[in-house]
């Protein structure tokens, strides 16, 4: 009975504070200074997300909301994306330039792949993966938040993603 009274009192306290059970879970995970507020910094630390990358992502998404996004070329089909439109445009533009520079011949696709990987790592940090394919494909992989893109240009499909830092993200 003692345990039940404790739980009931705890439920009353939560109801009075108007904080739900799910919110308590997030507060306990992210609210490091225990002030019942989660700052952007605390949120990123709580989920192991790199703060400077989230700030860049926030700016890029704000540009999208303000309709300052680049136009996607007509010969590109986005298959799947977890990336801001600004970042997508830079990746696709680089891919197109490399395809023009080296040609779409299969013997040169390894150069396109390695140069695109080099661009991604110099621009957005380590560790990126690039796959260029012909035809159908199916994939399952883990990636950093906002760091995955699959698109098709003519007969080539391209998939790029950044490897997670080893921390699992759960909700």
From TrEMBL:
SUPFAM superfamilies, sorted: DLC, EF-hand
Pfam families: Dynein_light
Gene3D superfamilies in UniProt: EF-hand, Protein Inhibitor Of Neuronal Nitric Oxide Synthase
A biological process from GO: microtubule-based process
Any GO CC annotation of this UniProt entry: dynein complex
Matching InterPro entries: DLC_sf, Dynein_light_chain_typ-1/2, EF-hand-dom_pair, EF_Hand_1_Ca_BS, EF_hand_dom
GO MF annotation: an example: calcium ion binding
Name used for this protein in its record: Uncharacterized protein
Organism in which the protein naturally occurs: Schistosoma mattheei
């Amino acid at each position: 009975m003692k345990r039940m009274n404790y739980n009931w009192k705890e439920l009353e306290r939560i109801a009075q504070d108007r904080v739900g059970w799910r919110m308590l879970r997030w507060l306990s995970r992210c609210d490091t200074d225990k002030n019942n507020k989660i700052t952007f910094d605390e949120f990123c630390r709580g989920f192991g997300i790199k703060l400077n990358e989230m700030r860049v992502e926030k700016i890029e998404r704000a540009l999208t909301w303000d309709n300052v996004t680049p136009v996607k070329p007509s010969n590109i089909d986005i298959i799947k994306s977890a990336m801001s439109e600004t970042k997508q445009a830079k990746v696709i533009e680089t891919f197109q330039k490399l395809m023009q520079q080296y040609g779409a011949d299969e013997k040169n696709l390894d150069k396109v792949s390695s140069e695109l990987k080099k661009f991604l790592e110099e621009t957005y940090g380590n560790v990126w993966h690039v796959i260029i394919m012909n035809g159908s494909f199916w994939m399952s992989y883990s990636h950093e938040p906002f760091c995955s893109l699959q698109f098709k240009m003519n007969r080539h499909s391209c998939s790029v993603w950044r490897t997670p830092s080893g921390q699992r993200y759960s909700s």
